[in-house]
């Protein structure tokens, strides 16, 4: 695809690689918003990102930040900083990136799937949901104007195996947080310590309007599981989601409220779509065809 | 006696072995390998277990094995008292082995397409998909013939390790952008396979085929 001209999308920070993906002294090409970019790594935490113009002319250097196991960049002028997620700084946390996984759909479908609790019992059967306990209890959504984020609070769902550390089923308390059009996270109560929350994120690299890479850094309280087990759990969940994500039609997200009919369980999706509509984002959005 | 499987949940090849272990109701120990992003299967420690740097690998009573197909043969040979999963009679043995080899050979193009789409492997995706479709055509034609004969399985009257070896990468092909629309006999066969007692799905195996 051509590079998007949507400045709302271009002005967001997005991930373009995971830490460790580019070897020391090495280089990697990838794509964001249809723009080819090149990442070079000269030192442990020293990355340079620049555009790769199609005509072979020299590229433009882009801003870079490394956080949450990812390399972030932006093609525009970022209006919001990277989100603060304090859990990643707590010393006893297991901070784990899970690489990135390719998904052929629009970035917003990924965010909405991550926000959705109603699919747990059907797609993540016996792990994040049970076939006989499918109800999504009422929860609240908020647009936090000070940080311009969408939150869903007071979410609860019965989970047979909420995390790698779980031995029995539990009522899991969730808080969801949409930090940008392309990033979302959740806090869920830790199995062994109800005062703390695991923090699990999805940062999305939109390569094109219906072609994404999803990065899933997490900061977990779990002394026992191996890193391989933590990653395996998270990736297994995500590849269950990937099947339904790639089968959603249209792949682009419709913002017209009459196009898809939400239920009460979709309150977070409704808030997210309103927010996207208000910011007038065009990239990856389904435009109504003329009759 | 303990069986130890070097495993990665998202690997279709490991899934073949897990399926047979479940079907035979065998207890085993699982050693999780950080295949992606950690590439632990290429680590020096793992190369001692399998110098090819591939999963699955299996340890069984001092025996160390690699290759999903070889492991299926070993488990069926040693633990399946009924002899049905790996028939030894001359009418069936060769045919089962032929399709087991097909699963480890031609069908692996569907695995390559999946690695490209989901895990970002650099390879010629169009070539991988074309090869996978060609392999699916061969198996679908075979299963069509089997249906005409009134049979449900790849070889003989019972499911064999040929069915187990072929199932994962046919079922998972959607992950690599390869649909099942053109393969009605494969869809029927997958439905039958899913109904086997003790069957379990893995992530990416679609619920409805």
Automatic annotation (TrEMBL), chain A:
InterPro entries: Cholesterol_7-desaturase, VanA_C_cat. Keywords: Dioxygenase, Oxidoreductase. Residues 104-279 form the Vanillate O-demethylase oxygenase-like C-terminal catalytic domain. GO terms for molecular function: dioxygenase activity. Transmembrane segments: none annotated. It holds the Pfam family VanA_C. This is Aromatic ring-hydroxylating dioxygenase subunit alpha.
TrEMBL record, chain B:
It comes from the Bacteria. Residues 1-83 form the GST N-terminal domain. This is Glutathione S-transferase family protein. InterPro entries: Glutathione-S-Trfase_C-like, Glutathione-S-Trfase_C_sf, Glutathione_S-Trfase, Glutathione_S-Trfase_N, Thioredoxin-like_sf. Residues 89-209 form the GST C-terminal domain. It comes from Pseudaminobacter soli.
């Amino acid at each position: 695809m051509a590079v998007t001209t949507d400045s709302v999308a271009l002005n967001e920070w997005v991930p373009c690689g995971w830490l460790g993906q580019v070897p020391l002294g090495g280089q990697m090409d990838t794509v964001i918003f249809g723009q080819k970019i090149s990442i070079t790594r000269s030192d442990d935490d020293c990355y340079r990102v620049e555009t790769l113009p199609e005509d072979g002319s020299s590229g433009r250097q882009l801003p870079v930040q490394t956080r949450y196991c990812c390399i972030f960049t932006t093609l525009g002028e970022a209006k919001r900083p990277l989100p603060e997620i304090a859990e990643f700084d707590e010393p006893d946390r297991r901070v784990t990136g899970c690489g990135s996984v390719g998904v052929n759909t629009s970035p917003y479908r990924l965010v909405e799937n991550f926000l959705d609790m109603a699919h747990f019992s059907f797609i993540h059967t016996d792990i994040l949901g049970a076939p006989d306990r499918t109800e999504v209890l009422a929860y609240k959504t908020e647009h936090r104007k000070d940080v311009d984020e969408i939150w869903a609070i007071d979410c609860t769902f019965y989970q047979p195996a909420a995390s790698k550390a779980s031995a029995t089923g539990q009522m899991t308390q969730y808080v969801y947080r949409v930090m940008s059009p392309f990033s979302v996270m959740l806090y869920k109560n830790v199995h062994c310590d109800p005062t703390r929350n695991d923090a699990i994120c999805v940062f999305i690299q939109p390569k094109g309007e219906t072609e994404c890479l999803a990065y899933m850094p997490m900061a977990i309280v779990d002394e026992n599981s191996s890193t391989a087990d933590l990653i395996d759990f998270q990736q297994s969940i995500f590849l269950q989601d990937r099947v339904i994500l790639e089968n959603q039609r249209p792949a682009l997200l419709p913002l017209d409220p009459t196009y898809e009919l939400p239920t009460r369980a979709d309150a977070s999706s409704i808030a997210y779509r309103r927010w996207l509509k208000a910011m007038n984002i065009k990239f990856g959005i389904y435009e109504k065809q003329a009759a | 006696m303990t069986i130890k499987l070097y495993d990665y949940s998202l690997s279709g090849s490991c899934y073949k072995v897990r399926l047979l272990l479940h079907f035979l109701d065998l207890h085993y120990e699982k050693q999780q390998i950080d295949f992606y992003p950690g590439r632990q299967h290429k680590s020096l420690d793992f190369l001692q277990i399998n110098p090819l740097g591939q999963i699955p690998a299996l340890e069984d009573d001092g025996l160390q094995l690699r290759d999903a197909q070889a492991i299926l043969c070993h488990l069926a040979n040693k633990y399946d008292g009924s002899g049905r999963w790996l028939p030894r009679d001359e009418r069936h043995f060769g045919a089962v082995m032929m399709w087991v080899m097909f699963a480890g050979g031609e069908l692996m193009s569907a695995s390559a397409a999946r690695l490209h789409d989901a895990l970002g492997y650099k390879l010629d995706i169009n070539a991988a998909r074309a090869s996978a479709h060609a392999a699916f055509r061969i198996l679908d034609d075979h299963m069509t013939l089997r249906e005409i004969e009134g049979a449900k399985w790849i070889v003989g009257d019972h499911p064999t390790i040929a069915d187990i070896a072929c199932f994962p990468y046919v079922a998972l092909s959607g992950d690599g952008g390869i649909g099942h629309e053109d393969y009605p006999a494969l869809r029927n066969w997958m439905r039958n396979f899913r109904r086997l007692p003790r069957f379990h799905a893995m992530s990416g195996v679609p619920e409805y085929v």
